[in-house]
């Protein structure tokens, strides 16, 4: 990279990274960006969205912030308690004459009901796109996440299954959308002296692409560690009536980056683990609709969100990844059993 003296602006490493991802995900176009939040903003601009966008509140706040940042109004939809994803049954009541799109989130890498959402949107002439931050190399009915809806946005933040230090990518099979995305991530430039409109600087650097290419080589190691940890958690916690580990379909591929449990009296368990130096997280807590600026402003709309609020009080993400050993996983499970027993 340094020998080429090519550090940014769509260099050879970035192009190679985009090409390898497009092939792996089975999509026609993959456009690397500096991070997924900017990717979501570019996606909304590329789709020409206006007015309101329906999305779940059970997500990281960046999903809603990205829509607000480009002048759109988030409309929060409740989730299906079984999948933790946006509930298609809740869409009808939220559509208005100002609705331009639905933004689903593939939570924990478990894909949304893309067929129901797609059919609903098509009947109402709405755009559909997905926050696929959790879902790299995951599948829906054997098909990789990446080619659903008008486009999908991945995160390659340092905390994700595949990381580029900081980064993201937008994938699509629509050549016109892909061209707009490429222009918008590069100041709106279509040619050196021609812009298509207002753009931003959303490019991925060569050093991030180099990290991504390196980590692509290690994905099998990541998969194996995550699968091992998940299986130990499932075995060790199977007898705990107050803990329900979310499951992953064996017929689908999932990166299993997240070991997520629904826990009765979650905060007592969370505090007990914290007191023992165990870093579990209350994903996603609180719901985005309960955070500023959405909790006390007119810059969003929401219907009743009983399932979201109930789930936010139960979910606990447990430690996993390549840096935790099987013995440490068993120690976490033992700690959970002891806390619940007391």
Structure in a nutshell:
Helix content is 34%, strand content 18%. It is an alpha/beta fold. It folds into 2 domains: 12-217, Aspartate Aminotransferase, domain 2 (3-Layer(aba) Sandwich), CATH 3.40.640; 219-341, Alpha-Beta Complex (Aspartate Aminotransferase, domain 1).
Could you explain how this protein is built, in words?
This protein is of the alpha/beta class and 342 residues long. It folds into two domains: 12-217, Aspartate Aminotransferase, domain 2 (3-Layer(aba) Sandwich), CATH 3.40.640; 219-341, Aspartate Aminotransferase, domain 1 (Alpha-Beta Complex). It is built from ten helices and 15 strands. The strands form four sheets. It has an eight-stranded mixed beta sheet, sandwiched between helices. A three-stranded antiparallel beta sheet has the order 12-13-15. β10 and β11 form a beta hairpin. α7 runs parallel beside α10. The protein is globular and about 70 Å long. 46% of the residues are buried. The model has no long low-confidence stretch (mean pLDDT 95).
Question: What brief labels describe this structure?
Answer:
342 residues, alpha/beta, Aspartate Aminotransferase, domain 2, Aspartate Aminotransferase, domain 1, 2 domains, eight-stranded mixed sheet, 10 helices, 15 strands, 18% strand, globular
Q: Percentage of helical residues?
A: 25-40%
> CATH class of the largest domain, please?
Alpha Beta
Q: Give the biggest sheet.
A: 8 strands, mixed
Per CATH, the superfamily of the largest domain is Type I PLP-dependent aspartate aminotransferase-like (Major domain)
Number of continuous helical runs: 10
CATH architecture of the largest domain: 3-Layer(aba) Sandwich
Contiguous uncertain segments of 5+ residues: none
Largest beta sheet: strand ordering: 1-9-8-5-4-2-3-14
Multimeric state of these chains?
single chain
* H/E element order: HEHEHEEHEEEEEHEEHHEEHEHEH
Strand content: 15-25%
Provide the number of structural domains: 2
Query: What is the total tally of β strands?
Result: 15
Counting helices, strands and paired strands, the structural category is alpha/beta
How far apart are the first and last residues' alpha carbons, in Å? 56 Å
Instruction: Please name the CATH topology of the largest domain.
Output: Aspartate Aminotransferase, domain 2
Mean pLDDT: 95
Specify Rg, calculated over alpha carbons.
20 Å
Form type? globular
């Amino acid at each position: 990279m340094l020998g080429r003296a090519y550090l940014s602006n769509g260099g050879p490493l970035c192009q190679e990274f985009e090409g390898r991802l497009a092939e792996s995900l089975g999509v026609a176009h993959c456009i690397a960006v500096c991070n997924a939040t900017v990717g979501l903003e570019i996606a909304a601009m590329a789709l020409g969205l206006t007015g309101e966008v329906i999305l779940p509140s059970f997500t990281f706040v960046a999903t809603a912030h990205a829509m607000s940042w480009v002048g759109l109004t988030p409309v929060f939809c409740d989730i299906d308690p079984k999948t933790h994803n946006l509930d298609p049954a809740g869409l009808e009541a939220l559509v208005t004459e100002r609705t331009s799109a639905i933004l689903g989130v593939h939570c924990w890498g478990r894909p949304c009901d893309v067929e129901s959402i797609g059919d609903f949107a098509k009947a109402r002439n709405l755009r559909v796109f997905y926050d696929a931050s959790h879902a790299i190399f995951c599948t829906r009915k054997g098909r990789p996440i990446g080619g659903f809806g008008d486009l999908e946005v991945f995160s390659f933040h340092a905390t994700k299954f595949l990381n580029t230090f900081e980064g993201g990518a937008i994938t699509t099979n629509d050549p016109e959308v892909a061209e707009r995305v490429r222009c918008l991530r590069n100041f709106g430039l279509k040619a050196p002296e021609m812009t298509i409109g207002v753009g931003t600087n959303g490019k991925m650097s060569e050093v991030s692409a180099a990290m991504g290419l390196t980590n692509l080589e290690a994905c099998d190691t990541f998969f194996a560690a995550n699968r091992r940890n998940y299986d130990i958690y499932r075995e060790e916690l199977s007898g705990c009536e107050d803990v329900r580990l979310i499951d992953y379909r064996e017929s689908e591929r999932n990166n299993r980056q997240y070991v997520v449990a629904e826990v009765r009296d979650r905060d007592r368990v969370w505090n007990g683990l914290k007191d023992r130096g165990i870093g579990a997280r209350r994903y996603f807590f609180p719901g985005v609709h309960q955070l500023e600026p959405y909790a006390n402003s007119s810059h969003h709309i929401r219907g009743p969100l009983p399932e979201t609020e109930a789930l936010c009080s139960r979910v606990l993400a447990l430690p996993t990844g390549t840096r935790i050993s099987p013995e440490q996983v068993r120690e976490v499970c033992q700690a959970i059993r002891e806390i619940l027993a007391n």
